[in-house]
Amino acid sequence: MKHLNILVSGKVQGVFYRDTAKAVADQLGVKGTVINNTNGTVFIEAEGDDFSLEMFLEFCRKGSDRSEVENLETSEGELKNYRNFEVIRKKSS
After folding, report:
1. Most C-beta atoms within 10 A of its C-beta, which of 14, 57, 62, 84?
2. Rounded CA gap, 55 and 36, in Å?
3. CATH of domain 2-80
């Protein structure tokens, strides 16, 4: 198991990117969260095995049907042992 922090930029808000990310994550058994940032990017925390995360990253690079991914940044982080994959609807302050 490993933890990835993924920052996606481009046309990734208002195009069902988060909901599609959840559907893909659920299919692959990836756990974590996805949230829209105020600067127009999407931030994902994803946990899973190497194969599942690589397949999930393939989705992240392509995005949903209506999105246009321009850049993807990933970094490994500390495992948080998420129980599921959740779309966070509102940024907490």
Report:
1. 57
2. 21
3. 3.30.70.100
